[in-house]
Amino acid sequence: MCDAADEAQLTLANGLRVHLHHQPHAPRGAALVQIDAGSHHEPEAWPGLAHLLEHMVFNGSAAFTHHARLMAWVQAEGGRVNATTQAASTAFFFEVSADKLADGVARLVDMLAAPLLTEEALRHEVTVIDAEYQLLKNHAETRCDAATDYAFGALPAMRRFHVGNQASFGDDIPALRQALWHYHQRFYHAGNMVLWLQGPQSCAELAALAQQFGSAFAASAPPAAPFALPGPINLPYGFALACAEGAACLRLSFWLREWNARDAEALMLLQQLALDESQNSLLAALRAAELCEEIRLLNPYRTAQAAIVTLEFSLTSPDYAVARTTEAWFLHWLAMLPALSSARLLHYASLARRAFWRLPPLEQLRQRAMGFPPPAKADDILLSWSHLLPQLTERQMTRLWSAEQAATQEVETQGFRLPMRVLEETPASLPVPVPTLGFFTPGRALTPPTLPDASVPLTAIEVPGDQPVLLLRPAFGAMVSDAQGYLMQTALRSVAGDILHRGGQLLMAEHQGVWYFQIRGEAALLPVALAAAIESLTALSGAVYAQGERAWRRAQRADVSIRALLSLLPRVLRNETHDGPPLDALPQRGWEACLAGGDDALRQQLAHLLSRFPGQINQPQATTAIPPPAGQQHLLPAVEGDAALLLFCPLVENTAACLAAWRLLALVYEPLFFQRLREQQQVGYVVSCRFHQSADRAGILFALQSPRYGIEALLAFIERFLAEVTHDLERLSEAAWEQKRTTLRNALRATAADSLTRAREYWQRMRHDTPSISEVQLAQCDRAQLLHYHQRLREQPECRVQLASAPGFLP
Ligand SMILES: [Zn+2]
Predict the structure, then answer these.
(1) pLDDT at 787 over 90
(2) How confident is the model over 641-677, as pLDDT tens digits?
(3) d(CA 695, CA 702)
(4) Of 215, 425, 435, 789, which shows the fewest CB atoms inside 10 Å?
(5) d(Cα 784, Cα 723) in Å, to the nearest integer?
(6) H or E segment to which residue 330 belongs
(7) Distance, CA 93 to ligand 1 centroid (Å)?
(8) Catalytic annotation on 54?
(9) Domain CATH number, residue 529
(10) 562 alpha carbon to ligand 1 midpoint, in Å?
(11) What are phi and psi of 199, to 5 degrees?
(12) Which residues surround ligand 1, an ion (CB under 5 A)?
């Protein structure tokens, strides 16, 4: 865990502000640059300019072009990279293995300080953004965001077009390029930027890194003028927005006129309180009354002086009365917050901090820069809280109720046509009965459960970690369907909420297409948590079944075709046949269970308790393995008007040699696939190829989504790519091979920083049906062997699983 000594801040001579976060033992490092300018800063004549520049800087810079660019380089290194343009800020960020952090920072800084902005790249990115706009037009979340902003029309930029498209950029490429240069000069200089670095390097090493590269930014020009904010703005009562069936929600948005940066820390606490799912919490009460399923906290607008904070409630029905009651309960809950004691607030804040430290490095940096970061000192949260809370008043609040057929007349805003209407004000004094709501009281004692006489065999494994972890997963050949997984998850929600308060964690979740039941916590907590979980699972009420089905349906809903296909993949690989939820049964076919860490006394207790767990535990299975669903094609109706294709190529043999080859091939394919199909041939806006594990199967996954081509054409693109890449494999230099091997070696050696993930990965590697790659196999995997497996991948199409969606298909 990090404390204040592990972080540092400095300002370089050129004015660049730098935040450093030393994270001991972290296998990966991350960097983020934030520019204090976003869509609201772009000239009115050029809608979309800020977004366009965000795209353009990835297209090559003074020192790094082609394969050396950040985008291509990070992909080849098996890292992650992305960027986002917001109302008043823009951020660029990446994550790679820690030893490569400096190489990445060099590229990131160069592309922001010295982008080439060539006309050729500009022409290309205009078409990319136009395609993105076509996609976003139908994207439910984007539409809901635009409708949320609409209520803040007192700020003129809130209704302006920001995404950009072919029409807004026009055909005069030199003029567009000039406008980009101008915008870049005005805002992309050291005084208007913040650099964040995080990694296992010491703060001194990180500071040296920042010095070495951060000095490349142009010294501060005169500071960008802050926004002239209007005085107190009169918020409308609210709006109604028509949305897709089954996607009803209520958004309550607050205008925070007194915002300062520290309020973001208080939002971390507000989020923890609002999303608490333990007994008597707001969320538990809303769920029990079948009003709302999930709550999200959003921060759609943030400048140095003001912000908008939104609470989103996903509603169970399009009935307006459900939205009204939800709002009344929330406001009642909000009114309880000022009375919370410091001890309680600090308790909730400690839970949020714990969750923060479990995030991957890049997520931590994103939270620090743009989200809800933890305070440097725990007690500081109380001060921020007392500053935030008085700003959350009903007077400073506006509503967006979104439901099917909630409105018919269209409003044009941010370049979207939205069916919206003004929401009629309803008297606040509606007689809505409010349930008893409560907050967790720290320090309540635990009562150890009574142990049954029977017991089951329970495997123990040794995994380095701070707390013991109990893991259950479906036995070999058995499976937990999505419907069953969501049913169990729903049944366990309130127990999970309580365990979180006691310093542990209970998680029923799908990882790589397999549903795991997982508990971690102190040795005294684990048996209590397991007993409570078993009690919930063995007494499923009708209400829980209904909630489980709703959770399952929500998970099925995807507003991007490729995501719908991705969530279908594990179901296809598991040979899940039924389309509907089996509302009668939990999985009975058996579980494998193990305890990672902990002593024998704990193992004994859990072994006795598990005898009551629904389904058999660690019993020799009479079942055979699920047959591989090879050569199958599955079709889904398209969500939007374009075609999407997922092609999964599992290992052609279940050996370590094949696995090593597959992983190396994926490292070769990944950057080339993106370059050729996305950048050169402009096939579509989703173009990806990577090594992928799902439902206990390893393979290479190709994903394409395109507004221009049909499924057959997309498939032909992949086939042609695979044919052409043979040539690349033959030509690849020895040095390049060695680099791929090193990247893979690092990936195999990396252990997850989070103890739960670590325990799961250890167990997965130990299981008999999973080959693991040794150093010898890696060395043996030479060019000849890779070419051999590459040919087999190409020549065995009957092994592949193909999922597709296109307009006009019926399920
Ligand atoms: Zn974009």
Answers:
(1) yes
(2) 688 999 999 999 888 899 999 999 999 999 899 989 9
(3) 17
(4) 425
(5) 16
(6) helix 320-336
(7) 14
(8) yes
(9) 3.30.830.10
(10) 17
(11) 180, 180
(12) 132
